[in-house]
Amino acid sequence: MRILVIEDDLDAAAFLVKGLNESGHIVDHAADGHDGLHLAENNRYDVMVVDRMLPGIDGLSIVRKLRDSEVDTPALILSALGEVDDRVEGLAAGGDDYLPKPYALAELMARLEALARRARPEQAATQLQVGDLQMDRLKRKVTRAGQDILLQPREFRLLEYLMRHAGQVVTRTMLLENVWDFHFDPQTNVVDVHISRLRSKIDKEFAHPLLHTVRGSGYRLDEHG
User: Fold this and answer.
1) 120-162 pLDDT, tens digit each
2) 2-122 and 127-221: same fold?
3) What is the mean pLDDT of the chain?
4) Class of CATH domain 127-221
């Protein structure tokens, strides 16, 4: 997912961003309300995490302004104010969920996944399959022919994108934009390196390859070759 975090506590933000990145998500961070509102209005995010107390513009005002502008990005509001009235006020402002501080990172991530699924029900499938290769998105588990395949977070995102576009040619530019969030070519071999690593994990020990290079075009994940 692509996530916007609006949090002025730099230590708390660094912890949150690190945890989300390590789980394979792409994260933008804003340290004040004005910057956060600008990013939310001018970029597409799957979900956003908004601290309630912010310099410049407070979190509830950000969410209200976005809803008035018909920006419907799901918003999880973080706050040290956790009483029932505080939660009601946050939801009434247009927030989709409300999590009091301190919070557990695992719970925050689970809530973000739930918000994203509700926002895009057509993409809510938790099980993906190509031939005998299977992915459980919720458990973050990949198997082929019943054999567990251990992937790093970026490799998981790469495979998920390929599986969602199974049978289609996926270009290097598509992968850079959707897996790495690069809207320009950084002139590195990062895609080729990760494709090579992924191929060694999902194909090397199996007789029938699934990940194919389409010369001059890109890559295709296809059980039919």
Assistant:
1) 655 446 889 999 999 998 889 999 999 999 999 999 999 999 9
2) no
3) 89
4) mainly alpha
Domain ranges of the chain: 2-122, 127-221
pLDDT digits (tens, 9 = 90+) for 28-59: 999 999 999 999 999 989 999 999 999 999 99
| Residue with token string 């690190």 | 18
128 and 160 Cβ atoms separated by less than 8 Å: yes
**DSSP track, the chain:** -EEEEE-S-HHHHHHHHHHHHHTT-EEEEESSHHHHHHHHHHS--SEEEEESS-SSS-HHHHHHHHHHTT----EEEEES--SHHHHHHHHHTT-SEEEESS--HHHHHHHHHHHHHHH-GGG---EEEETTEEEETTTTEEEETTEEE---HHHHHHHHHHHHTTTS-B-HHHHHHHTS--SS--S--HHHHHHHHHHHHHTTTSSS--EEEETTTEEEE-TT-
Is 181 a residue whose pLDDT tops 80?
A: no
Q: Name the CATH code of domain 2-122 (choices 3.40.50.2300, 3.40.309.10, 1.10.10.10, 3.60.10.10).
A: 3.40.50.2300
